[in-house]
Write a structure and sequence with these properties.
Layout: H1 2-32, H2 37-49, H3 51-62, H4 66-91, E1 96-97, H5 101-120, E2 125-126, H6 128-147, H7 160-164, H8 171-202, H9 206-218, H10 220-231, H11 235-260, E3 263-264, H12 267-287, E4 292-293, H13 295-312
Helix pairs in contact: 1-2, 1-8, 2-11, 3-4, 3-8, 3-11, 4-9, 4-10, 4-11, 4-12, 4-13, 5-6, 5-11, 5-12, 6-11, 8-9, 10-11, 12-13
Length: about 325
Amino acid sequence: MLIPFIIFAISLLVLIAASKYFTEAAERIGLALKLSPFMVGVVIVAVGTSLPELISGIIASINGHSEIVIGNVLGANISNMLLILGMTSIISKKSIKLGKEYIFVDLHFMLGSATFLILFLLDGTISFVEGIILFVGFIVYQVYLFKSEKPDDIPTLNDSEVVNKLTKVKPMDVLILVITGLGIYAGAKFTVESITDIATALDVDKSIISLTVLSLGTTLPELSVSIAAARAGHPEIAIGNILGSCIFNSFMVTGVATIISPIHMPFEIARTSVVFLIVAAIFFYLISQDKKVSKWEGILFLLFYIVFLLKISGIA
C-alpha cells in the first residue's frame, strides 16, 4: 500500500530536481552562446520550469491517462495564479508594479488561453481538432514574444559570478543537460504510473490527485524562480513567469497531449476546477487594473488557493 506513495514522492522529487538543473544548465549554455537576455530569461527559463507539466502530460497521454493531463494543467494554472502569485506578492518588499506593457499583453494571452481551455472543457472532452487550435495558439504567442520589446535586465537563475565567467559552452553543462533530460523523463514516467496506482488504492479519480498533489509539485520550479525574482527586486519578472507558464500549460501542454490522444475529464471534477480557474483569472485581471499587486491582495490569493484544495479534495 505504501509503495505507490513512496514511488510517487521519489519520482516527483526527481522530476523537480532534474527540471531545476536542466534549466540552469540550459541557461548557462544560452548565455555562453551569447543569446539575448530575453531569449535566455523568458524562453529558456519559462519553458524549462514548465517541463514537468509537459513531459508528464505527454507520457500520461501516451498511456491513455488523459485525466492526469488536464488535472495537472488546471491545477498548475490555478496554483500559478493563486499560490505562486500570492507567495510572490507577500515576499516582495513592496507592492508589485505592473507598469511594463508586455505584462498586460501577456495577461490578455493568459485570459485567452484560459478561455479556450474552459470552452473546450464544457462537454468534458478536448478533441484532436481542439488540440490543434490550442497548439496554434501557442505558436501565435511565440511569434508575439519574438516581435515584442523585452527588457535587457532579466535576472538569471545562476549566480552573477558564474554568468560573468561564461565565455564558451562547457562540456559539463552539456552532460548535465543530457542526464537531467533523462531524469525528467524517468521522473515523469514513474510519477504518472504511481498516480494510477494511488488512485486505484484509494478508489479516487486520478484527476483529483493530479489537480492537487501533482500540480503543486510540478509548479515548484515556477515558485522557486518567482520567489528568487521577487527577492532580487524584479517582482514584475515573476509575474511574467507566472503568466507565461499558464499560457504554456493551456496551449502547449494541453495541445500536444490532445494531439496524441483526446482528453476526457469527469464532469463534476471539471466543473469545480473550471470555476476556480475562472475565478483566479478574473481576480488576477481585476486587481491588475491599478497596475500593482499588494501584499493584502496576495493574502487573498492564498486564501482562494486553500479553499480550492478543500473543495477539490471534498473536505469542504
